[in-house]
């Protein structure tokens, strides 16, 4: 009995034969390329999730700052109300100005934090998922030829 090994001939773009490769070698090469592709996609997903994590962290920090300044605004508002009752105008007017400034700071921090959350959403690696879907479609398309 003789064993016959199936071979495929590589043909370059200009139509010249380059070399013949056994099927086993081609399958091994495809397997190696597929594992390299999966590793690269996993690295992309890891990098994308790290970037989104940083954005969520920044957004959370901004909301924390907004909460702090909102609390200070409430304290200043209480102080303004007390001062307004104690002395007719000058003391409470100053306290209201401070309250307004703190409120403005809280609003700016809240808006900035909201923008950071919007940039980070959704919390899944969208680019990596899209690349994997494209890779699967390409592999399926090339196997049907």
TrEMBL record:
Residues 1-12 have a biased composition (Polar residues). Residues 13-22 have a biased composition (Basic and acidic residues). It comes from the Bacteria. This is Phage holin family protein. The keyword Transferase does not apply. Keywords: Membrane, Transmembrane, Transmembrane helix. It comes from Streptomyces broussonetiae. The chain crosses the membrane at residues 62-85, 91-111. The keyword Transmembrane helix applies. InterPro entries: Phage_holin_3_6 (IPR009937). Residues 1-22 are annotated as: Disordered. It holds the Pfam family Phage_holin_3_6.
């Amino acid at each position: 009995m003789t064993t016959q090994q199936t071979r495929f001939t590589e043909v370059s773009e200009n139509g010249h034969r380059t070399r013949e490769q056994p099927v086993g070698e081609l399958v091994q090469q495809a397997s190696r390329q597929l594992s390299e592709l999966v590793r690269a996609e996993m690295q992309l997903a890891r990098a994308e999730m790290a970037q989104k994590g940083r954005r969520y962290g920044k957004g959370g920090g901004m909301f924390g700052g907004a909460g702090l300044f909102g609390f200070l605004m409430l304290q200043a508002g209480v102080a303004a109300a007390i001062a307004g009752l104690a002395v007719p105008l000058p003391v409470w007017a100053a306290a209201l100005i401070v309250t307004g400034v703190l409120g403005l700071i809280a609003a700016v921090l809240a808006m900035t934090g909201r923008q950071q959350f919007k940039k980070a959403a959704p919390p899944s690696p969208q680019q990596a998922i899209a690349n994997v879907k494209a890779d699967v479609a390409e592999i399926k398309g090339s196997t049907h030829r």
